[in-house]
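#onboarding

Welcome to the new folks! Below is a worked example of what a typical request in this channel looks like: someone posts a single protein sequence, and someone else replies with the predicted structure as tokens. Don't worry about understanding the tokens yet, we'll cover that in week two.

Example request:
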Amino acid sequence: MNKVSKASVLAGAVMFGGLMVSGAANAGVSVGVNIGVPAPVYVAPEPVYAPPPPPVVYAPPPAPVYVQPAIVVGWHGDRYWDGRRYWDRDDYYRHYDHGRGHDHDGHDHGRHNGWR
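Example response:
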């Protein structure tokens, strides 16, 4: 029995060694085909070129315009201005002779030669 038992121990050791060697000799070659959606990835947007704004230009103020005051001919209160001097009412009527010597012959009093 001694011979059988040595032979069985030796056979068991060879089998155990064979199993160990075959596990280490397995290279693990595998072929896989995967078609799927890629994982979401955040990508920063491209930088945008914005030109600098144009320089601010202000138009120069317009040149001042000086205008001589208008001459208003006529009555100003109790005096008359004829463009050269003021006249009192009595002086004006005496100088320009209004109301005397005018007969208004050519005036048609609004009738305009028969047309209204």
